[in-house]
Amino acid sequence: MVIRELKLYHFGKFHQKSLSLRPGINIIYGGNEAGKSTIHRFIKAMLFGVTRLRGKGAANDDYSRCQPWDDVRGYEGLMIFEHGGKRYRIYRNFYKEDEQFSVFDDVTGAEIVLKTGRIDELIPGLTEANYKNTISIAQQESRLDDRFASSLQSYMVNMSMSHDGTVDIGRALASLNEEEKKIKAHMPADRMEKLKRDMMSEVPVEETQRSLVKTEEELRKKKEVLTKQINECREKISEVRARERRERMEGLKLLEQRRTLLLSLKKEEDHAEKRKDVGLFGQWSFRIFLLLTVLAAAWMLIQWGMGLDRMIYKVLAGVLLAGAFIAAAKTSFKKPEDVIDVESYENELQSIQKHLSPYIKKYGQQLDGPGYSERLQKNLEQLNEESASVTSQLERLAWEKEQLEEKRVKIDDVRAAYEQAAEENRKYKKELEAVALAKMVISDLSGEIHQKFGKQLNEQVADIFSEIAGQESRSVIIDEKLNVRLDGTKQLIPLNRLSAASIDQIYFALRFCTGSLIFEDEQMPMIMDDCFAYYDDMRLKRILEWLAGKNRAQIILFTCHHREEKILDELGCGYSYTAL
After folding, report:
1. Which is nearest to 516 in space by CA: 476, 468, 550?
2. What residues in the chain have per-residue pLDDT under 50?
3. Angle between the 372-469 and 500-519 helix axes, to the nearest 10 degrees?
4. Cα 223 from Cα 439, distance rounded (Å)
5. Percent of the chain whose predicted confidence (pLDDT) is above 70
6. Where are the beta strands (DSSP E) in 457-500?
7. What integer pLDDT is reported at residue 511 of this predicted model?
8. What is the pTM of this model?
9. How far apart are CA 58 and CA 51, in angstroms?
10. 3-state SS of 279-310?
11. Is 141 strand, coil or helix?
């Protein structure tokens, strides 16, 4: 495969940018921020599209980083390349609202329909993972992706067994892993745990139900007792009220009699007091009597003294004496009804007071105080309140029993759901066991294949490393996960003990070998973006010389230095030079 032309219509900082490439070595020079990495990303984007993430990661994904600066809607490009003796044209519109991917025969103009929509249908083995781990090296990314090991194992299996690329361990394992995730996601473990916790509440439900039934029985008995007491209290209140009503009526009658008698007695006493205040000498009759008596006496004395013997004087004296007699009689004699019988009054009052005393003691002076019926009424009210409280408690218990019954029904449903989930779980466990068995078989197969190809891969990487490093050949050990170590005198040496340049060289050798293994006889381009930053001049000279000697179909080298062109000039190696 040889890339002939790149047209960045709208991509990153570039607008209508064209770049022509040739077979052999192509040096693309540019300072910092010149766009070298953008063009590197453009090649990958044209082959595989751009990655779009969701959520917070969307701000830093390839789609966002490569969006055009001038026109977001015009997010597109074109690449022309040669492969298998034919010339192809790829067009892509990366804009998410109008995404397009088209492949044409650049000679006939006929569109080539890819059923899978992937470029590896046209160029076998050219997947994004293989591209990233073999023919493309980005800045400070010489180490291979851990997931690439499965792709390499797939090609080892294909070479060993089918030779037609039908076996893809990576995809098989990825599919199995995805299936395993789906099975685990569908496994009702969390649901079973929750259902189990819900079922555990069945015992408290039964205990609570027994407690509620016992409490309900006690409350109903209490309710019956209270109802009986209330009825008895009501009957007693009726009886007591009737009796007290009679007693109060009798007492009130006695009070009225006492009041009337007291009023009469008071009235008579008032009259007696008035007569007492007037006294004997204060009475008009007595005064008249006294006056007439004095006058009569005086008159008689005068008559006797003067010797008057006339009839008229005698008649006058007699009249005076008669008037005095009448006045004296009126003063000295009273009518029987005018005399007060105090003793009779007192006796009657004592009799009334005697009969009235029990009523006053019981109901107070006015007979309107609380009686036994009022105390019974308060007791009845307390009984009614207690009965209402018991009724409320019974209603609450009825509601709780209803809720408890609903909970029991739910528990029965939960138990049934748990049994169903347990059955599902058993089924999923069997499926997981099948997936685990399939993964184990694939792992065993890939391990066996690695044993066949591992030695060859180790030797090839060691040879290339020795050539580009200018060192004696040292054993390199690469396991099935592409972990690399060097064979030391007494132990295996991990790569982190080597210099950064040596590590880059070993991984470069590994990329070259795995790329040759995956793409077999197909000459794929090597695309490197400032990947020799840790190399000194001697290391850089060796690797450029080695690359030139391999006669690769195409090498695209992005650099911000002039070392590469100087070394190639010294070596007399031809190259194409483009300055951005």
Report:
1. 550
2. 159-167, 279-282, 333-339
3. 90
4. 73
5. 73
6. 476-478, 484-487, 492-494
7. 84
8. 0.54
9. 9
10. CCCCCHHHHHHHHHHHHHHHHHHHHHHHCCCC
11. coil
